[in-house]
Amino acid sequence: MTDLTLADWQSRADSFRPETRLFIDGDYVDAVEGNRFESINPADRSVVAAFSAGNEKDIDRAVAAAKVSFKTGVWSKMAPRDRMNVLYRLADLVDENAKELALMETLDMGKPINDCLTMDIPFVADTFRYFAECIDKIEGSITNTENDVLSLILRQPIGVVGAISPWNFPLLMAAWKVAPALAAGNSTVLKPAEQSPMSCLKLAKLFMEAGGPAGVLNVVPGLGEEAGKALALHMDVSKVSFTGSTEVGKLMLIYAGQSNMKKVSLECGGKSPNIFLGDLVGDKLEQAAEAAAHAIYLNMGEVCSAGSRILVDQKIHGDFLEAFKEKGKDLYKPGNPLDPGCNMGPLVDHQSQDRVLGAVAQAKVEGATLEFGGDTPGGDLSAGAYVNPTLFSGVNNTMTIARAETFGPVASMIPFNGLDEALSIANDSIYGLAAAVWTNDLNLAHQFVRDIEAGTVFVNSYDEGDMTQPFGGFKQSGNAKDKCFESLLSYTQAKAAWFRFS
Ligand code: NAD
């Protein structure tokens, strides 16, 4: 919890003047054509600032700067220990600037300030520390081959990496791309989501303060179809690392095919099943029901891995539903996100609010039972893009609410009979990002872990983990892993070198 009060944060917000220009080749610069777009505070519809909107020309400038920095080797050939030190200093600077970065996230996308201070920003610092630690652990190998031959495999950086990030954890999702890309020695151009460019622009400055060379980390905010597309189509970008919707993720593959066959790593949407087996009773059932509510309502439900499909065994369904209503209904209360006591802000924008309320209306039409929520808070919050925590029961897996990503605080409860049926429902989805099972039965837990089609799975927990844990999806949730050493290696390429001695 922060030492500042709501009044303190409000006064900081009122006098806050963020940097609004692009960051290219070590400096803030205006967009070539001078275009701007507004970031709107979703809590009250006020304009936070008008940001330079990068387009193809700005992306060209940024990629050119990144390419020069890569070729000169100022970063790509820097001794690993020196590169480590820069990223360690950057992690420290993130910590030192935590309050300002947190305020940026709250104003840009409505995330509660306390979440920013206790989750997003510390996790960003962890991300840079973890990948800094990994830098001199990237090893090539010598293969076992003929006597007169030395066969080496080198791991080298790829070149210019384009990172395209979403708004739901603005700086953290960007850090999951940029930190391993930089650690591996690449130069980068980051295109943050247009809803939340502020903290990424600040990160670029902190990178320079930490001793990073100019041109190595460039940040070009702009619209997806302009700046994002230009980056993904660029002939001098060797890899694009994308986090966002499945729909746009598919475009990334097309752009790569239309340009230079760049590598594409995708972290996309989800409709993750959180499964509660029939052996849960008493306190365990109550705790599990509360955990189910956290898994869907945290961050206003705007979490790619949110446990939005709550599958409950028929044996415990009645008790579980009651426990969820009792524990889950008031666990998250919409409020002013600048209030340190608030745990639920508005959705990112009013378009999202309309989309989520539309999904609620559709679920009712399709026959789901609204248990609570499905509406917006009134009073002081009526101007904001809020949606109250919502629960539907009586959902079946053919309903839209069980199939499409809602990306809001809407839970669907789906009954089943036994683990086999739960697995078949859970796996009947185009997505495969995260999944969890809650049970005391080790055999069933093991069967679940083996048979569930998801990249990140939990047993008796949800959305836990640390930097060593690969995070990424199966199926249309993506083709890559963030965090973890494997992610770092994906920002390198293997070169085989065959030395003949004779
Ligand atoms: P989005 O796909 O609309 O946008 C993501 C990024 O792509 C933004 O920077 C946007 O400007 C850019 N973009 C949009 N259209 C583009 C185009 N035609 N060409 C190039 N770039 C384009 O997603 P969003 O609304 O910002 O984020 C929410 C989505 O992100 C959800 O689907 C969520 O599940 C997903 N997400 C996934 C993960 C994960 O790790 N799997 C993490 C966070 C969010």
TrEMBL record:
One of its GO terms (molecular function) is aldehyde dehydrogenase [NAD(P)+] activity. Pfam families: Aldedh. Keywords: Oxidoreductase. The keyword Oxidoreductase applies. Signal peptide: none annotated. The active site is at 267. Residues 31-496 form the Aldehyde dehydrogenase domain. Belongs to the aldehyde dehydrogenase family. This is Gamma-glutamyl-gamma-aminobutyraldehyde dehydrogenase. It comes from Aestuariispira insulae.
